[in-house]
């Protein structure tokens, strides 16, 4: 695991975008696992900027998103499909048919989970998975207590997550109670993982994920077992870790 300390959110976004760019340049037909939330917005902006400058080409890139609220369709402004189009896909030359998200409007859970697992397999697995992290250590919508062995599944969101995500909705009542999420098993099969975290409210989650026991109670702690994980986080998100450790410029924890 390599950990890079970012000075601020802009620096974090540039560092993360650089790592994703390297992946696209090294493998123009790569499969990117993508995330939503506030954390990756700056990373997407930076990638769009480099695309506009002619430094990046998404023509052959495929993307598979982590999750989607159950009950929300792509026209709903709160859906993750809408988020991905407005924050990223509409501004680059990725082919719409090469972008995949769970279908929040599919009521048949077993059918949708099977379809999405099939997509992950049919694209040949994920080369680089971008992850944010929830304050309770969740990745995707894999809430604390979720078995590490799960593939795509339908999740009942924890109260903690509903509270945290209410900021994107008019009121807490509007936050869907369920979501489809790629499972930990699928995330762990990605060849490379890039986790980004910003702000002091992520300090406990990051500390427990990196230095705590590997347990479903902290879903991101499983990343300790992956052999190609890069974390880019600002000093606030790393504050608890930095009390006990230093992090070298090469990304090693000491
Ligand atoms: C949501 C998403 C996660 C995301 C997390 C953190 O619950 N399902 O994929 O990582 O929120 O979001 P933020 O980056 O806004 O803090």
Structure characteristics:
three-stranded antiparallel β-sheet; globular; Rossmann fold; binds 2-amino-2-deoxy-6-O-phosphono-alpha-D-glucopyranose; 31% helix; 254 residues; alpha/beta; seven-stranded parallel β-sheet
Task: Explain how this protein is built.
With 254 residues, the protein is an alpha/beta fold. The protein has a single domain, classed as Rossmann fold (3-Layer(aba) Sandwich). The chain has 8 helices and 10 strands. It has helices at residues 9-26, 41-52, 80-87, 109-122, 159-165, 184-188, 203-211, 239-244; strands at residues 2-6, 31-34, 62-65, 67-69, 99-100, 128-131, 153-156, 178-181, 192-197, 229-234. Helix 7 (203-211) links the parallel strand 9 (192-197) and strand 10 (229-234). The longest helix is centred in the N-terminal third of the chain and has 18 residues, at 9-26. It starts with a strand and ends in a 10-residue tail after the last helix. The model has no long low-confidence stretch (mean pLDDT 96).
Brief digest:
With 254 residues, the chain is an alpha/beta fold. It has helices spanning 9-26, 41-52, 80-87, 109-122, 159-165, 184-188, 203-211, 239-244; strands at residues 2-6, 31-34, 62-65, 67-69, 99-100, 128-131, 153-156, 178-181, 192-197, 229-234. The protein has a seven-stranded parallel sheet with strand order 1-10-9-6-2-3-5, with helices on both faces. It has a three-stranded antiparallel sheet with strand order 4-8-7, with helices on one face.
């Amino acid at each position: 695991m390599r950990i890079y300390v970012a000075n601020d959110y802009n620096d974090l976004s540039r560092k993360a975008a650089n790592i994703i760019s390297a992946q696209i340049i090294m493998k123009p037909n790569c499969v990117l696992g993508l995330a939503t939330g506030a954390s990756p917005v700056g990373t997407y902006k930076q990638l769009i900027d480099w695309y506009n400058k002619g430094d990046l080409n998404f023509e052959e890139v495929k993307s598979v998103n982590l999750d989607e609220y159950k009950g929300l369709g792509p026209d709903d402004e709160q859906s993750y499909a809408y988020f991905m189009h407005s924050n990223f896909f509409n501004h680059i030359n990725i082919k719409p048919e090469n972008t995949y998200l769970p279908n929040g409007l599919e009521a048949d859970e077993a059918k949708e989970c099977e379809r999405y697992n099939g997509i992950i397999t049919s694209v040949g697995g994920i080369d680089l998975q971008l992850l944010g992290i929830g304050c309770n250590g969740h990745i995707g919508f894999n809430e604390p207590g979720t078995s590490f062995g799960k593939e795509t599944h339908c999740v009942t969101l924890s109260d903690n997550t509903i509270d945290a995500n209410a900021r994107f909705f008019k009121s807490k009542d509007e936050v869907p109670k369920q979501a489809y999420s790629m499972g930990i098993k699928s995330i762990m099969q990605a060849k490379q993982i890039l986790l980004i975290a910003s702000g002091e409210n992520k300090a406990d989650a990051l500390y427990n994920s990196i230095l705590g026991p590997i347990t479903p109670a902290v879903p991101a702690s499983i990343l300790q077992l992956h052999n190609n994980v890069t974390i880019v986080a600002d000093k606030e998100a790393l504050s608890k870790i930095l009390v006990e450790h230093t992090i070298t410029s090469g990304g090693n924890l000491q």
